[in-house]
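Researcher: Please generate the 3D structure of the following complex. Treat every line as part of one assembly.
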Amino acid sequence: MHETPVNNESNSSKSLDKADVLMNAALEVFLEKGFHQTRIEDIIAKAKVGKGTFYLYYKNKEEVVDRCLENFRREIGKTLTWVHENVNEDADLTDVFLSEAKMLAETLENNQIAGKFLFREGRAVGPSIDKKMSDYYLELVDMSENTLALAMAAGLVKKLHPRVSSMCIIGGVVQIFYHWLEGDISSDVDDLLRETVRFYSSSLGLEFERGA
Amino acid sequence: MHETPVNNESNSSKSLDKADVLMNAALEVFLEKGFHQTRIEDIIAKAKVGKGTFYLYYKNKEEVVDRCLENFRREIGKTLTWVHENVNEDADLTDVFLSEAKMLAETLENNQIAGKFLFREGRAVGPSIDKKMSDYYLELVDMSENTLALAMAAGLVKKLHPRVSSMCIIGGVVQIFYHWLEGDISSDVDDLLRETVRFYSSSLGLEFERGA
Amino acid sequence: MHETPVNNESNSSKSLDKADVLMNAALEVFLEKGFHQTRIEDIIAKAKVGKGTFYLYYKNKEEVVDRCLENFRREIGKTLTWVHENVNEDADLTDVFLSEAKMLAETLENNQIAGKFLFREGRAVGPSIDKKMSDYYLELVDMSENTLALAMAAGLVKKLHPRVSSMCIIGGVVQIFYHWLEGDISSDVDDLLRETVRFYSSSLGLEFERGA
Amino acid sequence: MHETPVNNESNSSKSLDKADVLMNAALEVFLEKGFHQTRIEDIIAKAKVGKGTFYLYYKNKEEVVDRCLENFRREIGKTLTWVHENVNEDADLTDVFLSEAKMLAETLENNQIAGKFLFREGRAVGPSIDKKMSDYYLELVDMSENTLALAMAAGLVKKLHPRVSSMCIIGGVVQIFYHWLEGDISSDVDDLLRETVRFYSSSLGLEFERGA
DNA sequence: CATGAATGAGGCTTCATTCAT
DNA sequence: TATGAATGAAGCCTCATTCAT
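Model: Done. Output below.
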């Protein structure tokens, strides 16, 4: 469809930084056994490095999650930015939602492990991560609320309570994405996204069917 | 509004079972410090019993959560049952949703601590609780899906994908309730519920405004 | 053959003292799980009494063993005394040994559980029981030594080192009895005893075959 | 007398394996306080290592005994093998017994602590060690029985019941050695062994006196 | 006498973290 | 940098013992 946002970060073409190797190993184990059931030893075993090496790159397990959360936010952020910058001013809103959903799904698919882990356990890692997750969630709600408020003011969508609507939408979408990642949803991803967008288009009084 | 469902179980109003005393103490500490950061000693200190006493009633911390989850499901179940049994056959659907929401809010308020804790950390307690939580969530989605499918077939609500719609609704409602419990939402609870119901009524093509 | 020594002790014809009920229950569990692996709770469960009741009769597990050891010594003592008192002055020594062996076997059979337990674990119960067991063992060796020394002096048996001979005999006989109780020996008990006596008769230069 | 069997195993004379250091420390404490009265902390204190270090080498106290028992069997085995390989075909049987006894006494003296501990408490450590001890004992009896049966068939020793004789001999010898290790026997070890062999030579109809 | 709920000292075991190589 | 043997603080859990009924 479009050129996707590029990841220019891990520059040296060859291999991941050892910090990344450790992070990925850690996330895999976190998913398998749960964060609190994971011992440093499990991580270094999966990463195939010595025990001391872990401490060369991270102070403790939480720091790994911290880095992972930052990565995740950055990736999602890049996607959202890209969508906003490339959205056609006079495109149908439903189409915009649909492409946004597709881009997000793609990004999530590329960050599956981090995504699953953060959704599942992020809140329970510890107070500092909990705070960051909460803040991030409310940040997303705020963004959505602002957009909705503008759209309502412009008469582009039905007038509803912008904050409540945002929470309903973000809450629902997050759950949809989560259960999709978890494999709890059998339908094809394109169907899933289309039906999800149709649901919220209906909520907002957009005549989705026109385009179908 | 109506007579609320009665709890005839813990008979004599006076003395909680010591298992309950321990559970409540445990939940309070879980909320304060997080499940995995809580030591048995924290629990027995809050419950004002000796260390061995804890093990007279529970095998470990997880078992407390298990009991708590069962309690929670039972309470929510009682509420949902009551609503279904007391719903007026020809009542406006929007009104039904609103009363259901109010009843649930009341039940949640009565089980605040358990609710907050389960939402926050349930998935991270351990694999067995994780499984139960997942199953419970999907059970709720199933229930909702069945109801929606019937309503759609009867032409009472707009035709959408019933499962996706259910997940959007349950996901959003759960988030709304969670953030309300967490105190992240400033609005008055009645407003909140009304606006939430208005959002989903709109999704389903119900003319909420009539009743407003 | 002869009237056996009578147990006039547990007088009241009806039932065991509760201390005995507890001791027997304890010994059974000791045999099943080992002394140190046995908890007071196992004992009172087998004895079908309340937890506090145990402490009405015994200060701790060791005291049960102590009582058991005293019982055992008394029973063996009664048997040895009876043999000595009823031995025919001019009987063949081999015959004397054989009837002594038979009486002891009978007594051991009547005190199987105590016997097995004491042989197996007596030494490991604790220092005080260990001491008593050791002393008892050496007491038996002394008795045997005295008898042998007399018999050697009287020319009734071959001249050997009386103490070493006693230790060889007591050591071997104890092992024979132990493995018989444990069921490690398949032969008929009469054969076993006869062969055992034949072995030691041979050691002492008694012509066992005459009587066979 | 002869070159003794060499221990080529723990190669460089200097540093015991830390597992051995721990085992020796453990055995010393076991002897002092008894196996079940010994806490891990006693062992690591004697071994002068940190608490965690113990668990680097053993899963628990029982595993130490297991290793010790294997060692012990190996040492005794090496001695028996050496005796069998170096026995002079036409040597007097009594002489063979005497040298065997001396070799065993030497081996036991080199493994005093393990020997005392295993004799005293081996059976009471736990079911798995109990089984191994029992099996080992019966293995020794079997070996002795086979040898005796051959000797009886060849007319080298008096015809007696081979199994019963073996049990008498092994049982007695074990006791003799045990009480010697325990210091319960005052006589000089050479006297002790000579008298013991004289006793069993007499049992088997060997004219020990010839050689004396 | 008999009971069993409650207790807390005691010992086990894990695992994050250090540090000498 | 990288390693992994060694450590000991921390928390779990058991179980002997008490005591109010």
